[in-house]
Amino acid sequence: DSASWGFKIWYSARNGANQEVNDLGQTMAFLRDIDAGTSQWQSAYYGPVDSLNHSFNGGNAGRINPTVAYPNPNTAGTDGVIGDRRGDRIACLGRARLSIPATGQYSFQVRSDDGFLLRFADESNIFTSKNGNGVIEPDSPYEVSHQAGTGDSNTRATATLTAGEHDIIFVWWEGGGGDHFEVTVAEGEQPSQDGPYALLDSSNYVVVGFTDTDGDTINDSWEIANFGDLSKDGTGDEDGDTVTDLDEYTNKTDPNDTDSDDDGLADGAEATAGTDP
Fold first, then answer.
1. Measured distance CA(202)–CA(53) in Å, rounded
2. pLDDT digits over 164-182, tens only?
3. 56-65, 181-190, 239-248: range with highest mean pLDDT
4. Which of 75, 139, 153, 220 is the most buried (most CB within 10 A)?
5. Does the bond joining 23 to the residue before it have cis omega, within 30 degrees of 0?
6. Beta strand segments in 121-258, E
7. DSSP 8-state symbol, 203
């Protein structure tokens, strides 16, 4: 629930095995162990960021410059004190909801030092090709990662996404030395780092101000505008056109009108025929 990316970054991060984050496994263990109460960190920032394009001091570090400095801490570490940013042993987690306007191929580029994980929350969204240092895991093709502890990840991966909304998750860590992370997007399959990449932020596909109080994957503001409250769960069919309220939201049709575009064909009939309702 943020202006763009929901974001958390932890400084001087150690997982429950007392390992300072220095590779993907240690970082994923750190995130897991937060819930178990066994992770440790010096301080953290929880809040929104408009885009993922950061380095410690906000210098020129990736393909799109200048970068932004890491956020100043607003949350105390495990010692109960809000401290300074630390330049090493950093972990971060970002999540955003994408609004894809048309079904097609979209390429995502990550330039980072150290490694990263980029994952679609919906496991049916899979990366079909990649270029660069990262890998698409055969057993989990909905994610691409660069697991090594050092070096620039320099990775591009392409996925075919359907029109509608899709959640995307980003994990990054810094073990030591140079440090930055940058996530960009381009339409089509773009295997070259010189492709038409732009920061993945609210100027393109990231949904601005998405809030889902009741957890039904529908924006609260849309529910209130169409139903007056948050009592619907998305599985109903308010106008009886055989299209669920959730699908009406995804399709950007009117959940209170059987024929949203007034062309004489009900929304459900158009969905079945493959035409635009």
1. 13
2. 989 999 999 998 877 899 9
3. 181-190
4. 153
5. no
6. 127-132, 135-136, 143-146, 155-161, 164-174, 180-187, 198-199
7. T
